[in-house]
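Title: Prediction job returns without error message
Component: structure pipeline
Severity: low
Priority: P3
Assignee: unassigned

Description:
Job completed but the reporter wants confirmation the result is attached to the right record. Sequence as submitted:
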Amino acid sequence: MNKAIITVVGQDTVGIIARVCTYLSQHNVNVLDISQTIIDGFFNMMMIVDYSAADKDFGAMVGNLEDLGDDIGVRIRCQREEIFTRMHRI
């Protein structure tokens, strides 16, 4: 399984979750876990996804998600899970 962590942060607007999940679904990326909150009008979401069956390579997916974030006015960041796992072993 190839896992990644996706974070989405920005001003809350209608459709953020829908747009991100639609992109992931269209490219065969499975959402394993999701958490989202809105604090004082600011949207924050963290997702754990499995991109093993994705039809794009990881770098292209990262770039596409960043572009999507620009389109909808939020910052989207996607990182491989092993970055987080190795950080906690140091």
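Comment from assignee: result matches the submitted record. Residues 3-87 form a domain with the Alpha-Beta Plaits fold (CATH 3.30.70.260).
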